[in-house]
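re: that chain from earlier
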Amino acid sequence: MSNHLGRRQQLIAELRNRRVFRVSIVYAGTGFVILEASDMILPRLGLPDWTITFILVLLGLGFPIAVGLAWTFQVTPEGLKRSPKSGEKPSAFFPLREYPRLIALLTKYSTPTI
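^ sequence. v structure.
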């Protein structure tokens, strides 16, 4: 029984080390925003009702791909790197707070102007 708990704890530690939980939460939040926006916008564009279902299916199919990529790669200041294996030190995270111009540009062009 304790061996089973040890394996589970190792798996959770590995998922944290590879930042899989973070990617899953961000993907779920982004997917929710995309679904809500498409639910409001697509009917006004005169698109059929099945387009929202199609977007939901695409998001569902993309989730395991995003988790797999999160397991395999990390975004670092040097670019994409393979995730460290068990016991290795994780590489430095790519913090967005060090790029205020990029954040300002993204905020400026992603918000609608009235």
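The chain has a mean pLDDT of 77.
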